[in-house]
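Can't paste images in this forum, so I'm doing it all in text. The chain is below; anyone willing to post the predicted structure tokens underneath?
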Amino acid sequence: MQRIYPLLFVFLWSTGFIGAKYGLPDAGPLSFLLTRYGAVILLMGALALATRAPWPAGPRQWLHIAVTGLLVHATYLGGVFVAIKHGLPAGVTALVVGLQPLLTATLAGALLGETVSRRQWGGLALGLAGVGLVVSGKFGDAALGAMLLPAVVALLGITLGTLYQKRHCAGFDLRTGSVIQFAASAAATAPLCLLTEGYAVDWTGGFVFALGWLVLVLSIGAVSLLNLLIRGGSAVNVASLFYLTPPTTALIAWAVFSETLTSTAIAGMALAVSGVWLVARAK
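Text version of the structure:
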């Protein structure tokens, strides 16, 4: 069963970009996220109480889990949602965040003491070349630079969050840990939301569907899988899975939103997938 976790995670994580684009016409990005965080806190809090899940032993562990929440959720999701809200295509947003394996490999040795082999570096470089090919056709828009900034912030958040969690709190309980992570994210997001958006949500059917999908499938399902993968694998191998999200997201976006795929983009996706294979095989 555990063999399918990585592929299931890639698919579920990729749908997050689609869900964001689907629901954002009816809500401000931070308002959307604040609503999402609140729903997850209620659901996971009830589950934790019903199952008597263990809470962290001391304040230091609470702090570590909260920091991972701020990086993996508040910073990463905030950047992704703002980028898509400002017009960056879902596929391109996924591609920018898909650079995470290179940053992770660069930092894993210094922060975690993990050895990155030549084969892994080759796979990571191949994946970067693939991402570059896919992105190459998207940079004609003069406003794209401003759209990319929040996506780059998201990239830094998910990279540092994965490494921080692997080093400081890889083994926390998924039920209580999720409550702490999303509570910290909500606390950080709420003042920014009120200052910049004033909590703007139009409760349409489309928004409710997108919210339900992102809460149940992404915030609970995919994030739980990510925590399990971080707990059981090296940071570099876990990060390499993010190279698969750009092509997966682009394919779903093509089917749902008619975001086009050029022959260059398809070739880039093939390179990215090959890079993931090399990184995963090199242990």
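The mean pLDDT is 84. The CA atoms of residues 29 and 81 lie 5 Å apart.
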